[in-house]
Amino acid sequence: MSAEEFNYTKMGGNTIIEGVNDRADMIETQKTFTMLGLKEDFQMDVFKILAAILHLGNVQVTAVSNERSSVREDDSHLNIFCELLDVDSSSMAQWLCNRKIITTSETVIKPMTRLQSLNARDALAKKIYAHLFDFIVERINRALQFSGKKHTFIGVLDIYGFETFDVNSFEQFCINYANEKLQQQFNLHVFKLEQEEYMKEDIPWTLIDFYDNQPVIDLIETKMGILELLDEECLLPHGTDENWLQKLYNNFVNKNALFEKPRMSNTSFIIQHFADKVEYKCEGFLEKNRDTVYEVLVEILRTSKFPLCASFFQENPSPPAPFNSAITVKSAKQVVKPNNKHFRTTVGNKFRSSLYLLMETLNATTPHYVRCIKPNDEKLPFEFDSKRIVQQLRACGVLETIRISAQSYPSRWTYIEFYSRYGVLMTQQELAFSDKREVCKVVLHRLIQDSNQYQFGKTKIFFRAGQVAYLEKLRLDKLRQGCIMIQKHIRGWLQRKKFLRVRKAAVTIQQYFRGQQTVRKPISAIALKEAWAAIIIQKHCRGYLVRNLYYLIRVATITIQAYSRGFLARKKYRKMLEEHKAVILQKYARAWLARRRFQNIRRFVLNIQLSYRVQRLQKKLEDQNKENHGLVEKLTSLASTHANDMEKIQKLESDLEKLIIQKRTSEEKGKKHKEVMEEKLTTLQTYNKELEIQNVKIEKKLQEKTEEMKDKMEALTKQLFDDVQKEERQRIILEKSFELKEQDYDKQIHSLKGEIKTLKEEKMQLQHQMEEEQNISSGLKGEVAHLTKQTKMIGEFQKEIELLQTQKINVEKHVQSQKREMREKMSEITRQLLESYDIEDVRSRLSVEDLEHLNEDGELWFAYEGLKKATRVLESHFQSQKENYEKEIEALNFKVEHLSQEINHLQKLFREENDINESIRHEVTRLTSENMMIPDFKQQISELEKQKQDLEIRLTEQSEKMRGKIEELSSQLHRNLEEEGIQRRTMEVQNEIYTKEKEKLIGTIREMQETSDHLKKKFETESEVKSSFKQEASRLNMENKDLEEELDMKDRIIKKLQDQIKTLTKTMEKANEVHTSSEPKEYIGMMEYKKEDEVKLVQNLILDLKPRGVVVNMIPGLPAHILFMCVRYADSLNDANMLKSFMNITINGIKRVTKEHYEDFEMLSFWLSNTCHFLNCLKQYSGEEEFMKYNTPRQNKNCLTNFDLSEYRQILSDLAIRIYHQFMTVMENNIQPMIVPGMLEHESLQGISGLKPTGFRKRSSSIDDTDAYTMTSILQQLSYFYTTMCQNGLDQELLKQAVKQLFFLIGAVTLNSLFLRKDMCSCRKGMQIRCNISYLEEWLKDKNLQNSTAKETLEPLSQAAWLLQVKKITDTDAKEIYDRCTSLSAVQIIKILNSYTPIDDFEKRVTPSFVRKVQALLNNREDTGQLMLDTKYLFQVTFPFIPSPHALEMIEIPSSFKLGFLTRL
Length: 1465
Prior knowledge:
By secondary structure, this protein is mostly helical. The termini are far apart.
């Protein structure tokens, strides 16, 4: 068959090309194959596959209907194709017209149309041909492979060239896309590298704006570009060219200047390429890009019996390598990789991948460009189309290159090259310079007057066009002058040489001629005499000359010898000196090398030691960090208890305020009564006199009762002292009894030791008897059996001991329960005391005059002052408790370390004890013949029981005594309260004494318990003495020492309590003498400081203060209160300069600390709180009425008196706003990376978001490690923010504002991400978002922040989640969406509806008609029309005025602040 009969060869219209002989080319191809070692079998296999491809193109497909097509099984071309490739013709005919669709539940066979079948046939032919081409290339590369190592290679690339025809399709699009990439490579190589060299050399240079085609490449290959939209449309089952073109119009028309829509066509689009605009027809783009080869056809070819065909379609073929593995090609710069997550099989994706590999190879090599210009499009000789050539030059960038060379410096020399090349033009003075660079500059300034014609770089000299030629001309002129000078001298020398040779010849001729003349003359006597005289004269003359010459030569030789010998001697000396110096240098050099080697070895050893020590220190630090963490937890618990105590104190202060209000009301009532009394003065004068008499009597009674109370209190104290003395006596008796028992125990131990010695001696005797009397073994066996029975009895006795220990534990539990009952009774008594002491009862008992009289006496005011003192005592007590707790924690840490060491030591002792016990047991079992140990055990057990009973009896007696004492005290107190309710102060003092006595009694109980515990321990040690006799004595001695130390401590405590009782009695006496005694000295709430200490104060209190660890041990805003107390001191001095400098340095210090720690959340929170507290203190004590109405009278006395600090209040307010914004940015930066993964991507509801929307690729997360952030991560971060702000004492209103800002950020970021991500717009994702919002609302409830408006900021996100879940079909649904989604704009609602994507087949897309209905309803709404929310929006912040409840007089400075230079006034 000829080429005209095959479909694939006649598609061009003409199979013959002029000047081309197909037969000769075929023969040449076969010769080439043979030359490469490819045999005829290989060639026949290749020709068979080519023939099969040609026959496959002739297979006829007939249309049965609009949706079906068929191929006849008797088609000759099909049979030839199947016969050549050895496949089944019936299955091939079937699957060319059908395709198989495999689902999860079934397999469906779907018929194809005629057009689809033809496309499948052509795609299969292309697939086979592509595999054949790759196979041939691989075989040729294998044949040409070189066995040696390859380092480099040379590649030749023939680029396509831009194509633009009347009808441009997918092929022209791919070719022009490749040309854009290659043109970009040329631009980068030629233009950018050229300009970068000028920038590198610091040459003043204006950048040339050349056309960069990166926007066109981005239009084609970036995300949502033309190729990606084409691949996405190819994946859709009903995708068409028109739909794809419509997507291009929607995405790029009027949005991208490089993409245009033709005016007269709706089936094409225009792209502005580098060379020109190209119009592409969309017809066939999808099918050419798909080029789908169905898997069934591939399976048929894979089962072919033709080996070459079957090998083409293996599942994991090894890809042919274009280069040998020895040569690695690595890109010199980063190339944008194509997205290879999906669409791996489309033609566009393959073309893009191969183009990426080509660009990577080009970037790894050094390219050289050869631009070929066509003189005309007809390829005619001697025809020159100037317009077409200019167009090609412009398209290839040659004109740009020419323009650059015209504007730039095309010629360049390095300084060394210029110096060596043009050194001829330099003068002797210029060559004398040592710096060659300066020489070049001087020469150029002299030779070229115009300085614009050259530029000096860092390493090169740049010349404009023509300057190098000018320098070459000067160089040639200089060389020409030098040549002429050389020629002149050489020619003169040659002429002189020729002249001298001619002259010498003339002289010799004259000599011979004259000699001949003299010979021919006649000889005479005169002539002979003259001749003889001449000879003599000549002899003497010549002798003289020779002697002179000899003398001269002799002197010359002597001088030469002297100088030469001196030179040789000096040379020899110099050589010896150099050798000597070399030896010295070698000595020092080798010593230096040895020292350096030793230092390196020592440094290496030190590094190893340091690394090992660093590791050990790191381990210690980790352990210390764990211990610190435990201590921090303890401190937080102490802080919580302190906060509770502070709340109680605040409650007490509130009660005091209520009492003051009641006092004021009573005073007002008294005034009213006075007015009434003045009106009725005339009628009630006699009655007033009687009342005065009664008042005098009442005063006398009160004095008598106070004296009685004093007597009673003295009696109580005496009783308490007597009880204490009795307890001390009992303790001494117990100690004496204990010492006696210890002596008895020592005696028993000595006796037991003696018995052990006797037993050992008897053991030795028994052993001798056993050796001597072996015949009596049978009798001894019986005795051994009897002894084993007795050992069983020992186990029973041990059980009885264990029962006694359990009884002991029960007794201890009983004692503890009694303790608890005692404590509960004491708490009930104190409650009754507090409840019984009621001010209203006192008022009801006293008349108005009595109240006035009491007020005049000042007793109510004294009670009020007493309560204040009590609160101060409580605060000081709390602070001392904190310090004690800290010391106890340190002591506990030390004890833990000490105990760990003791545990190790005790473990060793325990092992030794076990060994000793085992040896003793063996000895006991062997030496129990006389049965001496059993009665001893019985006696010891009976003694232990008796001692236990005695202890129980003593404990019961003591508990009964304590109960009786407590009941007596409680009855006496109740009687005193009923009789003497007016004397509140005395009862409070009594109550304090009572509590202290209670503490004493509790201490005595504890001492008794400790003594009982020690006694029990002693009993336990006695039981242990039986097993280990040697070690008990040492333990008893140690316990005795401990008891002595404890007794000393108890004595000290008793002395302290006695001193406290004495001081309390003195204060009671002073309190009773109200009129005589003066008021106690109190603090006035100021901190005295010196002006030179201001810098030190700011450094210690502001800059060096660490919030963590300090917050736990102080009241909120303590630094602010200290600063204000210093302000009060400056105000009291009326020193304006001192106050101004202090305020300025304080504000600057706060600014500096927030600037230095601009990313430290805890530091910013701490100083925001203190700034607000400082601002509130300035307002509270400013003296203004609007702020003073919240103060107590005592606080009103502490107001500023001399200066108005309203300007500084404004500065502090601005500073607080600045810190708040900085504080919010830190929180936003910390939480923003967690929002999208936690709110959108993480599946908090399992199974809800398990499916993904169809037709979407897997998007990369907004964070690299999305697994690290969940919804719990967001909640934990919010909880961390909340706890830190609460610990730092931040105001509740300000805390609510910060939480509101954070919740707005969470909602805005989540909603913006939802708008941008189509795969997140589904019903199930709406359920997920709603669930996460509920988690946030629960967090608000847990933190008691429901009243804040943070929940309202999540309303747009909540409405968006509802919109994803709601039904979107009918008109009522549209109306409901319009009514409910009030927080979303119209643009946002339409965006969500258009982006809604169903996950499975049960959901449906939102129809365009429904979207239009909703849009019509939303047209009436007036909103911004903005799609994205502004995440940087900040709500207005306000700082509410919160007066400080803390009294300035009660504030104390912790020692950790290091403010010892401040003094409280």
